[in-house]
Amino acid sequence: MESLLANPGDELPTLVLFDDVVGTGKQSLDIIRQWLGLNRELELNEDHVRPLRLAERVAFRLLRSHLIVLTALQPPDQLAVNYRKLLPRFESVQMASTQPPAGYFEPAIYQSGGETAREAEEFLGAVGEQLMRPRWQEQAKDHTLGYHNQKSLLVFSHNVPTSTVSALWAKGEVAGHLWLPMFQRRSGKPKDPRLATEQPGNVRSAGEMLRTEARRLCGLVALVTGESHSATESALINLIDDTLSSPNSEPLALDHSTILMHAVDALVATATIGRQP
């Protein structure tokens, strides 16, 4: 992102994100939130990546982007809607396959028929409930066969998705004995409470930082709006100054990212409306 801001070129590049599997999408969305510095909006208590620098966060949102995933448990259109809430120019999700829910416990795949399928599901569910109870307590039954009981059997060389049957990856105690799973999951680190979104100390220091970051963004924003570099710089700085000086708002209650993102979004929206026939 830093090299892109320094030399944006003549055409806006496209960003392609890759993932192995998307279940509910919460983890991958949280990784994007962490890149964008939106740590107060995280859904999971996990720390995966460090925030991008301020201008890079806004540049990330400006790029057209796509997600390529090996497999997902949700329709591509629904996933795209969720990603677009964080990345306004996100375009599509491409996947190799989707999994039928509960397909791994269908009697047809067991030589001995339905009884074996039921026994397997009941046994793994009972083990999973004991393994999930310390974390989920009363909600443990919702995750006995993977997160939200998605019943997946996916295992990768680098890790195991939480959608996979819990007994295959979760370590814990079952009936008073230690349960060692075949494929123990490598979990994300607990979220660092110090990584809260930064706050401007005062209007003056906030203004100086935001103007500096706005100038770094000008070349990239100009590619989106079609305006000149100088006109883009002037418009961005004016929008930032208006926010910081507005008597009808409380700018110091906003973090740096929000102020800069709102200014860029307003400029892009104005240019987009102006280009409509």
In short:
The chain folds into three domains: 2-98, no CATH class; 103-179, no CATH class; 203-275, no CATH class. The chain is 42% helix and 12% strand.
Question: How does the SSE layout of this entry go?
Answer:
Elements: H1 2-6, E1 14-22, H2 26-35, H3 54-62, E2 64-72, H4 76-84, E3 90-98, H5 114-136, E4 172-174, E5 177-179, H6 203-225, H7 229-245, H8 256-275
Helix pairs in contact: 3-6, 3-8, 6-7, 6-8, 7-8
Walkthrough of the structure:
The protein is an alpha/beta fold. It folds into 3 domains: 97 residues, no CATH class; 77 residues, no CATH class; 73 residues, no CATH class. It has 8 helices and 5 strands. The strands form 2 sheets. Strands 1-2-3 form a 3-stranded parallel sheet, with helices on one face. A two-stranded antiparallel ribbon has the order 4-5. The longest helix has 23 residues. It starts with a helix and ends with a helix. About 3% of the residues have low confidence.
End-to-end gap: 33 Å
Residues in helices, as a percent range: 40-55%
> Largest sheet, if any?
3 strands, parallel
Over the alpha carbons, how many angstroms does the gyration radius reach? 23 Å
Strand tally is: 5
The number of helices is 8
> What is the count of distinct domains?
3
What string, H for helix and E for strand, traces the elements in order? HEHHEHEHEEHHH
Mean pLDDT over the full residue set: 83
Protein structure class: alpha/beta
